[in-house]
Design goal:
Blueprint: H1 3-10, E1 18-20, E2 31-36, E3 54-63, H2 66-84, E4 87-88, E5 93-97, E6 102-112
Parallel strand pairs: 1-2
Antiparallel strand pairs: 2-3, 3-6, 4-6, 5-6
Helix pairs in contact: 1-2
Length: 113
């Protein structure tokens, strides 16, 4: 599993508020949510398992301002590329949640482990 390594690398950016799939109710801001959204399947002619796996992980940041969410997602990208050799699947996407008034940024990364 690659998730514990990801959490270890990015948790200091948000005082440990990093959660799989969804955040708990009434969590402080900013926070990060991650989930696996696919990956590359590995098939070999020998029809036997191999020791490499791939995961496409989406990272979502929620913050009180757009500037804060953008800064955080850029810092996450820098850390994951530098420390885990993540492959960036595309540029970050901004978001806004009208119900909560929060600004979001999300980005997908590919990891081999």
């Amino acid at each position: 599993m690659i998730e514990p390594q990801i959490v270890s690398i990015i948790s200091s950016l948000v005082a440990g508020r990093v959660y799989p799939d969804t955040a708990p109710p009434r969590v402080a801001f900013p926070y990060i949510v991650y989930q696996q959204v696919g990956g590359k399947a590995v098939n070999v002619l020998e029809a036997k398992p191999i020791n490499k796996k791939n995961a496409r992980i989406q990272i979502m940041v929620w913050a009180k301002t757009r500037s804060e969410s953008t800064t955080l997602i850029r810092s996450i990208e820098d850390r994951l590329v530098t420390e885990l050799r993540a492959y960036v699947e595309g540029a970050s996407v901004s978001d806004f949640d009208f119900d909560s008034g929060l600004y979001g940024s999300r980005q997908d990364f590919s990891f081999w482990f």
